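pipeline: protein-struct stage 2 | run 1193 | Enoyl-CoA hydratase
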Amino acid sequence: MFARRAHDIGLVSELTEPGNALAAATACAEVIAGHPTEGVQGTVRALWSVKEAARSQGFAHAPHLIALGNVPTGRQAEFFASRRSGEFRTR
């Protein structure tokens, strides 16, 4: 992915000239370090909490989403038991 595209979609917030990335990152770090420690820590914790909540929600919904379009488990077992030898091939 090109840097311009990453910036356009919000993956990165700032573009620099070649060779200036370290200076820009250091400047950002200095701004963050200038804020109260508690505020920075609270923000980081909030971001991790949201990420974990989204992951937990995803895992909670997974069984229902996987079941959509699939036959019931008992019927799957019947299909498996009734298959003929050589009917399936592996890659």
